[in-house]
């Protein structure tokens, strides 16, 4: 029983580590992942790696490949579908956050965290480096998700974010888009702080649809 528990704990740790790589955009579409290489890299046995890869298969983040798995590649139509879903989910998250703010349910420290995350994105973009900017960007979007206080919505968002992390990194190599991101983030933050549910939803949805147009224009 103890061994089973240890194995499950190890698999969970590997799963979290790999999900982080997806979220950070560190894995390229079609990149091969093998049990042996991952086990050596992470300093674990192949069993927890096998279990973690099985969960990633179930999540749709990887697909079967010879002697392992490969990072799932999204077609253009799939990118459009997932961005449209993301626009709806993030619009709902921003709207719920604004509603909670208007009702006095968001602590000032939580609002400061959102505003601080927005500033971090600006600094990351100014310093250059699309991956760092993408990580900061994700932290801000996670802050929007947390502010909604809807764990089911947050879970759905995390699954979407992981699937399109590579697209986010790609977009942030575009200087014009990076500047647009800053302005649109400010619009979303302002609407949430002011408790304007309609404006928050509209700003969040437009932000994601703008991101999709930027991605499609360059691919």
Give a quick rundown of the structure.
By secondary structure, the chain is mainly α. It contains ten helices and three strands. A three-stranded antiparallel sheet has the order 1-3-2.
Radius of gyration: 18 Å
Distance from first to last alpha carbon: 50 Å
> Helical proportion?
over 70%
- Low-pLDDT segments, ≥5 res: none
What is the helix/strand order?
HEHHEEHHHHHHH
Report on this model:
- With 219 residues, this protein is mainly alpha-helical.
- Helix 1 (2-23) crosses helix 3, helix 1 (2-23) packs across helix 7 and helix 6 packs across helix 8 (165-171).
- The chain is globular, with a radius of gyration of 18 Å.
- It contains 10 helices and 3 strands.
- A 3-stranded antiparallel β-sheet has the order 1-3-2.
């Amino acid at each position: 029983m103890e061994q089973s528990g240890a194995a499950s704990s190890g698999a969970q740790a590997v799963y979290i580590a790999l999900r982080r790589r997806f979220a950070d955009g560190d894995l390229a579409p079609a990149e091969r992942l093998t049990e042996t290489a991952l086990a050596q890299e992470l300093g674990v046995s192949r069993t927890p790696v096998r279990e973690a890869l099985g969960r990633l298969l179930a999540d749709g983040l990887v697909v079967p490949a010879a002697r392992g798995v490969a990072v799932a590649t999204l077609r253009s139509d799939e990118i459009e579908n997932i961005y449209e879903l993301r626009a709806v989910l993030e619009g709902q998250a921003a709207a719920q956050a604004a509603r909670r703010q208007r009702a006095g349910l968001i602590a000032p420290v939580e609002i400061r965290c959102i505003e601080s995350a927005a500033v971090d994105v600006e600094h990351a973009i100014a310093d250059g480096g699309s991956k760092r900017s993408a990580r900061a960007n994700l932290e801000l979007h996670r802050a929007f998700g947390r502010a909604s206080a809807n764990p089911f919505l947050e879970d759905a968002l995390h699954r979407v974010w992981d699937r399109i992390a590579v697209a986010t990194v790609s977009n942030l190599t575009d200087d014009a888009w990076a500047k647009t991101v800053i302005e649109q983030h400010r619009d979303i933050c302002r609407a949430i702080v002011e408790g304007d549910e309609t404006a928050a939803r509209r700003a969040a949805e437009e932000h994601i649809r703008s991101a999709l147009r930027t991605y499609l224009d360059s691919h």
